[in-house]
Predict the 3D structure of the following.
Amino acid sequence: MNMSEALSSPGKSIPWFQIFKYTVYSLLCINTVFFFQEEYAASAFMFSNGINFSQMIEAYSATIDTASWVVLLLVFEMETHVISDEKLHGLLKAGLNGLKGLCYVFILYALYGYISTYTSLLNFESSAVTELCSMAGQSFSFMTTLDEFVPIASEGCLGLSNSTQFFELPGTTILADAETLKLAQNLAMIDVINATTWVCLVFILTIDIWLQMKEELTDKMMKVSTYIKAVIYLILIACAVFWGIDGKFIDFWDAFLWIVAFFFIEMNLFEWHAEVEERVGHHDVA
């Protein structure tokens, strides 16, 4: 269970699996920066009058969510692989539990942000605008997909949409046609489904780790947990496929990396459980 043995033992081959695993973790950290850049640009359109504290989660839900998950992932990695059982107690254990608790708060807060974004997209109302070019130079913008907007200018306005029916978000200067609005609503709904499913997954995984720490995680419990998590992973894969077809590459890529990353945690847990079962078995024989 101790990673340092694999990395520092003399005479051993290069630990390519560990390098691959931590490369995935690093890419997830980089994605947090990408999400912040994307949401920072989108917030200028969605919150043209400025963002107050209560709107931060709606404006930066993906950034807050991803950053919290990165920290939580690293804590899980430490609990299931890096830190030995002998050291996983006392203040260290309490500190990790406190850090996980803080991550859970932000993850649930981000879920609320995804729900708020979805409900805000449901608030679009029919607009009197019938031609986008008529709004050129009036600080209006056109929503091309979820969290992406293009200022309506005299040059290029004809290429934005050939629709004659548009919708407007009250309190903003954002316009969208029916097709784009429906796509954005679907993507926002997938965000909600994906975030909710991840919360369910981490709830089950937290219970697994808690029971394993107490050496009370039985083979039967592991089997039931694995079946439930298999269904959860299928839902997450379905969300990733949807993003790959109708969404943005960064969303698909991020979803793929997260599934791979938590597959590593599952492998850690299986290995940890096998080690404990073997140790307990030897103790019983003795």
